[in-house]
Amino acid sequence: xxxxxxxxxxxxxxxxxWPLAVGAAITATLLTGCQGGQMISLGDQASSYxxxxxxxxxxxxxxxxxxxxxxxxxxxYTVHKFREENNQNAPQQFHGNNRLETVLVFIPTxxxxxxxxxxxxxMARVNPVSQQSLSVEALAKQFWxxxxxxxxxxxxxxxxxxxxxxxxxxxxxxxxxxxxxxxHGFWAPNLGGQRAAIPGSQKTWNIGTEREGxxxxxxTQLCGSSHxxxxxxxVALPQNRFDTFIKDAVAYTAPAPAxxxxxxxxxxxxxxxxxxxxxxxxxxHRVQGTPxxxxxxxxxSFFGTRRTLGAGxxxxxxxxxxMAPDAAAHLHAWIKHSPxxxxxxxMPRYDGGEYMDKGKMIKGGTLSDQEIDDVAxxxxxxxxxxxxxxxxxxxxxxxxxxxxGTK
Length: 407
Ligand code: CUA
Fold this sequence. Notes:
Layout: H1 11-15, H2 18-31, E1 32-35, E2 38-41, H3 48-81, H4 98-126, E3 134-141, E4 144-154, E5 157-162, E6 164-168, E7 173-179, E8 184-187, E9 195-197, E10 203-207, E11 213-219, E12 231-237, H5 239-251, H6 262-272, E13 308-309, E14 314-315, H7 325-341, E15 354-357, E16 360-363, H8 369-381, E17 395-396, E18 401-402
Parallel strand pairs: 3-7, 6-12
Antiparallel strand pairs: 1-2, 3-4, 4-5, 7-10, 8-9, 8-11, 11-12, 13-14, 15-16, 17-18
Helix pairs in contact: 3-4, 6-8, 7-8
The structure holds dinuclear copper ion.
C-alpha cells in the first residue's frame, strides 16, 4: 500500500472531489433501491408524473438556493460591517422604517406565492384523470394485489390478474386503489407517485411510462407480518401488445386437460378437493371459464403465464419458467404449506399442519406430494395464448435482462 500520497501536495486537489462523491452516493441511496436485481427509481423520467415532480423539485430547490444565498450574504455583510472594532458608536436604529418593513413582508409573501403556484400547477397536471385514461383497479389484501380491468368484461366479472399489472406505454393509466382489510400502499416508483389503499375508500390517480419494461412495485404501508412480501410487477407493453393481451384475456377459457393427464388429476383436486383435503382451491380462487369462482384469493386464470409467485416472493424469469427445478420446488412448497413459506398467508396448509386464520388455529388438509405436483401441473397449464404472453421479450428494468417468452 502506498501511503506516500498522504503527504503529496496534489492530495488537496483530489479531496475536493469528496463532497461531490458523498453527495452523489446520498442522492443515489435516496432515489433508488434494488429488489430482485431490479433498480427502482423515482428519478425515472420516462414517467410524466415523475417528470413533473422533478421539475417542481428543481424550481423549489432553485428558489431555496436564492433565498439561502441572499440570507447568507445579508448575514455576512451585517456581521462584517457592524463588528465592534469598526464601530465605536451604537448602530443607527431603524424602528418604524415603513419602506424596509414593506420589503421584508413583500419578499416572503412573494416566495410563498411562487411556491404555491408551483405546487398547484404540478397538482393540476398530475391529478386529473381524463376520460381517455385506461382504468385499472388495484385491490390490496393481506398480502397480495388484485389488478382488474373494469372495461374488460367476462362472464361473472372482469379480467383480473394477481400481482402482475399489465399496462400500455405512452398512455395515462388511472389506477384506483382500495383495500379489503387494512391500509396498504401502492407504489411503483418508476411509474409515478404512491397512494394509500384504504378499506372503504377509492383513490384514483395517474401513472404511466413512455418506455416498455417490467417495473418493480411494493406495498408501502406497514400492513402485517408479510408487508415486505407484498410486491408486484408492472409490465408496460406497446399498445398493440396490450390490446392483444386484453382481447385474449377476455376470450380466455381455461384449457380442458387431456383425459388421464396429471393436469386433469390436478384439476379435480383444484375443483373438488380430496377426502383428506376438503378445502378445494376453487373455494377461494377463480379460473375463467371453469366453475372455480372464488374471490378470496388471487385470480388464477392465467397462472401459467405469470412469472411471480407469492406476491413477488419468488420469480421465474427463465425460459424454463416454473418447470425449472428451483422454481418448481417453490411452487410445490407454496401449494403444500403457504403459511410456512410466507408468514401471514391466509391460504390453508395441505401438509396437515396448523395455521392461523382470523386469530384461530386451524388444522390444514393433507395432499400427497404427487397430488401437489398434479395441482402444480394444472396451474402451469392455465396459460394465455403465446401472442398474449406479456413477458416475452420485455426488458426487466434496471437489470439489462430480457424476460423470457413462453416455453
Ligand atoms: Cu400491504 Cu404493506
